[in-house]
Design brief:
Elements (H helix, E strand, L loop, with lengths): L24 H9 L35 H16 L24 E9 L5 E10 L18 H8 L10 E3 L10 E5 L5 E6 L5 E2 L5 E2 L7 E9 L10 E4 L5 E6 L9 E6 L5 E7 L3 H9 L1 E3 L18 E6 L15 H9 L7 E3 L10 E4 L5 E6 L5 E2 L5 E2 L7 E5 L15 E5 L4 E6 L13 E2 L6 E2 L3 E6 L7 E5 L3 H9 L1 E3 L2
Parallel strand pairs: 2-9, 14-21
Antiparallel strand pairs: 1-2, 3-13, 4-5, 5-8, 6-7, 8-12, 9-10, 10-11, 11-12, 15-27, 16-17, 17-20, 18-19, 20-26, 21-22, 22-25, 23-24, 25-26
Length: 496
């Protein structure tokens, strides 16, 4: 049995007294104080205190690590697959809620149907019950002060990568279930999260297994490092909609109707991130918890308008194409380039840079995995990324890259087109945007954290270049900014 540590009989956690706790409870609280995380497991539509949304098959140590939005976006795709394989869901009636003017959730319901394919290739119809809530959305009410907000939530938000497009939301805590709960840090890649542990009652273990009386992660709220998509929240069985356009959809964890962990996706008007809210205390508590959420003074991002599918791109006229002028001899290219081309398929298009530009004089070339072929240049210092695409301020790894995708279909484009398009006289074009973030966000809202220095740095840019007369898609990236990317595009040459 775990012993309670040598602490005072009563401790003030943001004004909450701490009674006697179950065996092992203090171990969990100490773990929260150290901002630790548990193991990753297979999850879908996961909300909790150990994993990134829809992260699959990774084992982490107990030191939380920030992930780039690219990695988060990759694992989010797994969540979409899990949605596609969901079986028919039973509707769950929405419970009683608290607001300035309590409203029955049965008011003005509407229904719609979404069709998803299962793994057996049959189709399953998921019926959504939509409830129009006539009262003002909770976050449009007066914000909380910092003194009314758990300190751990403040700390989490201030170090989050998404703080420029994801305001903090905190419970007003007019809920009796919060009286004996202790807030601690939780880990959601690229974002922020707080879980509340209770002395007993339902919860989940560090590996997200349900427990009847451990009280761990009884409920929580997170602003995850994923941007809102057109079907966020609205694809779930029970949906609440407020007059300001905000939405909350909820169901059981993993789309299991009987799963005791209830999980909501929340879209707040003007915010770019997906909020996740969870509770092991039932739908009634989950909805009342959502109703208690407020913005926090000093922890608010300026409203952001996300780019949508079909939005126009900013077009840059680059004039005459550069690749046919002053072709480069094969013998004059780096040995690494010669090697990767010789190993590539006959369809490989051989191009290189005539010049790498300022700041790249001492860079060293190496191979990079881009499909058909790829190379990258490492700088002695300056911005770059590590082997998992986490940005770094001074590592210089992969500062510049060049290569070719195996086929155009491998581009992996977001449903939202990159914000910029460069066009040349011969009909060639390049689309570019953030290399490590989604195209929905404006580039000036992207922010990345160096895991070693904890400093905020600019994200890399990546262009997909299609040269007229070829079916190839050439990839160009740089960590040195937009001006440098445009210079690199002007320096591309064919190789004889």
């Amino acid at each position: 049995m775990n012993e309670r540590p040598d602490l005072p009989e009563e401790i003030d956690f943001d004004g909450l007294s701490v009674p006697e706790h179950r065996p092992g409870f203090w171990d969990d609280v100490e773990q929260g104080w150290r901002d630790t995380a548990g193991r990753f497991g297979l999850v879908g539509m996961e909300g909790g205190d150990r994993e990134e949304p829809a992260m699959v098959g990774l084992h982490q140590d107990k030191t939380p690590r920030r992930r780039s939005p690219l990695l988060v976006a990759m694992v989010a795709a797994v969540s979409v697959l899990l949605v596609g394989s969901a079986t028919a869901l039973l509707l769950r009636p929405a419970g009683e809620r608290e607001s300035q003017s309590p409203v029955s959730l049965a008011a003005t319901p509407t229904t719609s149907a979404a069709v998803a394919k299962s793994t057996s290739t049959t189709t399953t119809t998921i019926v959504t019950t939509r409830v129009i809530v006539p009262t003002a959305a909770p976050w449009t009410l007066s914000p909380l002060t910092l003194n009314e907000t758990p300190r751990v939530l403040v700390d989490q938000w201030e170090s989050a990568e998404n703080q420029l497009w994801c305001s903090a939301l905190a419970p007003a805590f007019a809920l009796p279930e919060a009286e004996d709960a202790v807030a601690r840090a939780a880990y959601f890649g690229g974002g922020w999260a707080v879980a509340w542990d209770k002395p007993n009652g339902p919860g989940s273990t560090g590996t997200s297994e349900y427990c009847e009386d451990c009280g761990r992660s009884a409920f929580g709220v997170a602003g995850v490092g994923l941007t809102v998509k057109p079907n966020t929240a609205s694809r779930l069985p029970d949906v609440l909609e407020w007059p300001d356009g905000s939405l909350a959809g909820y169901t059981g964890l993993g789309f299991e109707v009987d799963n005791p962990k209830r999980l909501a996706e929340l879209v707040v008007e003007g915010q770019g991130c997906i909020y996740q809210v969870w509770s092991h205390l039932g739908d009634d508590h989950l909805v009342r918890l959502i109703e208690s959420l407020r913005f926090v003074e000093g922890l608010q991002a300026d409203p952001v308008t996300l780019r949508q599918p079909g939005d126009p791109q900013t077009v840059i006229d680059a004039g005459a194409e550069p690749w046919y002028s002053h072709k480069v001899s094969f013998s004059d290219t780096a040995d690494v380039l010669q090697s990767v081309w010789q190993q590539a398929t006959p369809q490989a298009v051989r191009v290189t840079f005539a010049d790498l530009g300022e700041g790249m004089q001492d860079a060293q070339i190496r191979t990079a995995n881009l499909g058909a072929w790829g190379v990258a240049w490492d700088n002695p210092a300056g911005p770059g990324h590590d082997g998992l695409n986490n940005p770094c301020k001074d590592c210089g790894r992969g500062a510049v890259g060049l290569g070719q995708r195996q086929s155009r279909s491998e581009a992996g484009r977001d449903v939202v087109a990159p914000p910029f398009r460069v066009e040349w006289d011969d009909g060639s074009y390049a689309e570019f945007g953030s290399r490590l973030g989604g195209h929905s966000l404006p580039l000036d809202r992207l922010r990345f954290i160096d895991e070693t220095t904890e400093e905020a740095i600019e994200g890399a840019l990546e262009a997909n270049l299609v040269i007229a007369g070829t079916e190839a898609e050439i990839v160009v990236w740089t960590h040195l900014g937009q001006e440098h990317l445009l210079y690199l595009l002007s320096q591309i040459r064919f190789v004889d």
